[in-house]
Amino acid sequence: MLSDREQRFAAERAREHTMIDREERLARIVDTALDAIVTIDESYRIILFNAAAEKMFACPVAEALGSLLDRFIPERFQTAHRIHVGEFAASSVTSRPMGKTHQVLGRRGNGEEFPLEASISWVEVQGRKLFTATLRDTTARCQTEAALRASEAFNAAILDSLSAHVAVLDSDGKILAVNQAWLRFAAENASETRPADPIGADYRAICLAAADPLVADPWAAEALAAWAGIAEVLAGNSDYFELEYPCHSAKQKRWFRMRVDPLRSERGGVVVAQEDISSSRNLADALRTERQRLANLIAGTDVGTWEWNVETGAVLFNERWAGIIGYTLAEISPLSIATWFRFAHPDDLEKSNALLRRHFAGELPAYDCECRMRHRDGYWVWVRDRGKVMEWSADGRPLYMFGTHLDITESKEAEARLRELNESLEARVAERTRQLAITTQIARSASRAKSAFLANMSHEIRTPMTAILGLADLLKLDNPSPRQAERLDKLHSAAQHLLSLIDDVLDFSKIEAGKLVLEQVPCDVARIVAGVVEMSTDRARQQGLTLSSDCESLPGPLLGDPTRLRQALLNYVSNAIRFTPQGSIRISVHRQEENKDHLMLRFEVSDTGIGIAASSLGRLFRHFEQADDSMTRVHGGTGLGLAIVKQIAEKMGGGVGVDSTEGVGSTFWFTACLRRAPERAGGGTTMTVSASVDTAAQQAPPEGRILIVDDEPINREVIVAILENMGLRADCAANGATAVELADKGTYDLILMDLQMPLMDGFEATRRIRQQPKHAQVPILALTGIVVKEVQNRCRAVGMNDFIAKPFRMAALREVVTRWLRPSPGE
Prior knowledge:
Helices cover 45% and strands 23% of the residues. By secondary structure, the chain is α+β, with helices and mostly antiparallel strands. Strand 13 (367-374) and strand 14 form a beta hairpin. The longest helix has 52 residues, at 425-476. The N and C termini lie far apart (139 Å). 25% of the residues are buried.
């Protein structure tokens, strides 16, 4: 028997062998593991490095054992890694929970870095802490994940580039993903039932919410239909679903087409694509409307229509074409050009063919022929056959022709009956009576046309008069010689005379047309008289005459038409100057009658002129007449001035008259009834016509940039020259459209706007310029030769501030421009 010592020794040897066997088995297990296993001690040196680690790090086991772990960690991470290991060793945790790993970077023996998935644990063996890391190379997985992310980004970019709104729904109808178009639409149309962020939203709930009676969505039926279609595709009962539905808002009408297709994936679901088809829908609606409109027009005109392929002989007729001759289209089918030949009168076919040949040759712009067709009941029907080739071949051959048939049987029969009636004397008398009635109507129309023509011509002449007067003023600035200055004065005098004739013609035209309308505005009689004296003094002085006035003090304020009062006085004064070779002229105003509401004033113009014979006084105040027709050649004039004064006075509730002694002089007078104005007139501002110089406005030179809008080049040249003389900069536009473009690109301090221009008139141009914030308050002044109340009202309505009447003098333009570029504090 063995001693106790021997037995203990044997047991010790057995345990050692068992431990060796266990370590060998463990080493074989570690070496055969697919994951790399690395163990380090507390000094950070490797004590275990299995075969998988050798392969992963490309480093032999013998070389790795005993080396620092730092050689397999990128240098920038080494310090942090040691700290983490130290913290892990200091914790009470000896291993990481199942599945808990770190994503780190490793470094192979050749220096290449690669991604790792690491799980670390530590144990204490014979008083030493050992750290074991199980490592897995995730290079392939990371590359796969990166490729997947790139693929997903590419697919997302494709979806986001689509104009259609695209969403992916899962099998329960929840929104998994949307493209940018869907996101934008959701943000713009968010509501209680439509979330701005659609991801995760229940699309079924959104559709059903629209059908809730409490929501009162106008598109409830469409929403229910949409979900029903989606549900069918989700359930696999339908391969796809399509729906066109409206989605109108207060701002615009929109139409969408929804297309639902199954999502080809294991998870199921659908792809919903919604495309905005508003443009094509609106176009289709417009085409349908136009088609119906044309059909209605054709039905309303009761004409037959035909289409003819000239090369093949094929034709298309509408039902009315067949109905004119008593058939239906079915009864005369099959249709071809031979159908026309079959029903047309043989005698008319030759005429029809001749007209067609002339049209095909380009001699006639269209085909137009009256011919007969046989009715099914045997009689002949007259039709007016009209058409035109609408498509030609490249070598000039007719291809397609379109036309109409109009039943003119009744008119032809009426013509025949009329011819029979004309054979009798009674018919001829009746026809003559009818012609006389037509002639009378034509004469009346001609009279109205004459008035309109005169008014139009007067306006058209005022425009070049602006250039004449303006250029004369500009020439005076060029230091002309005394002889040239004298001629310029004569030019100006002749132009003013022509202008007065134009004004007379225009006013006469208004009177004849019944368009002379008086204003009721504050009227300062004393100022009117003073203005007439100021305007006429130079002319009177040139003839060596003395011009004075005597205006009785009047209660005020009074209401009337100051423009027409001034015009009447100027007509009287102009006549007095013309027919007074020497002496004096005097204007006087005094009260004739008055009551609490009105004041009747008497205006007189007395002269020491040639006087008028008593036999001629009765013809004065008639249209186109003077006291003596020979005076027209000696003194000039149209014979309209006194007639106009008479009409003005009568419109104002007064009358006219004259007291004259031949060789001694004359006193012409008129009366006018003016209303007394309330003590305080109502608020509001009035626009005034700027045609005279206000000396109080002559201050320091104005500054600013001006836009001139006038279709007349010479007028633009004159205005630019006057403004440059004032030291101002100006841009020009020949029509309203160009003015709007210049105003949009630049900024102006004042705009001078003609009213009548091609492309776009001054009213529309002003309206559009006022819509530009930078020009909302900029003064816009009308340049017009027609300063009547209707025109003023239109100008106010579009936002104009003032008027400059054509033709204008340089001083008048300077005054207006200065006043609006340098407004007073009260303006």
